[in-house]
Amino acid sequence: MKRFFTSAILILGFAAGSILSAAETKPAAPSATPAAESTVAGDYTGTWTGKDQSTGALTIKLKQDASATWVAEAMFTLQGNEVPTKTVAVSVEGAKVELTFSWQAEGTAAQTKLIGALAGNVLEGTYDSTISESTATGKWQVTRT
Predict the structure, then answer these.
(1) Cα dist. 52→1, 43, 108, 141 in Å?
(2) Mean pLDDT value of segment 23-30
(3) DSSP string, 69-110
(4) What is the CA radius of gyration of the chain?
(5) Domain range for residue 109?
(6) 49 three-class SS
(7) What is the DSSP code (8-state) at residue 135?
(8) Is residue 5 in some structural domain?
(9) CA atoms of 60 and 45, how far apart (whole Å)
(10) Is 6 domain-assigned?
(11) 82-100 pLDDT, tens digit each
């Protein structure tokens, strides 16, 4: 009986050791946490304010297409009028976003570059616009809807 009991303990010990070894060498499951870039995706609304105290509404939509390329849409108001834009470039690195779009006002071509970062649900930063031979700068802030 003593011998049976000792053998049973040894067998259980080896079995437990094998299970622990298998658990230690088992590869970790892939992380379910999305990449930081995907957290930037969304629809945002807010405002822009120029250094000259001009202000208006701003909407931005950021998403990745099927090939994981970033796609953006932007629209803003200027003197109360909606101004559609055409995306020229969009770059996302972690929480940092750069978006360049072209637009027209009263027949004059312009381009704006937004640079900002996401904190929580708020995406904010600065902008530089080139209109003909002049420039305009300011700040912008949009919140995920």
Answers:
(1) 95, 27, 20, 17
(2) 40
(3) -EEEEEEEEETTEEEE-EEEEEEEETTEEEEEEEEEETTEEE
(4) 28
(5) 36-144
(6) strand
(7) E
(8) no
(9) 7
(10) no
(11) 999 999 999 999 999 999 9
Identify the three-state secondary structure at position 121.
coil
Does residue 21 form part of some domain?
no
- pLDDT class of 111 with cuts at 50, 70, 90: very high
CATH number of domain containing 109:
2.40.128.120
82 token code pair: 């909606």
The pTM of the whole model exceeds 0.85? no
85 falls within a domain: yes
Tell me the C-alpha distance between 130 and 143, whole Å.
25
Contacts of residue 82, defined as CB under 8 A and 6 or more positions apart, other chains included, come to: 75, 76
User: How many structural domains compose the chain?
Assistant: 1
- Burial class of 87 by CB neighbour count within 10 A (0 to 12, 13 to 18, 19+): middle
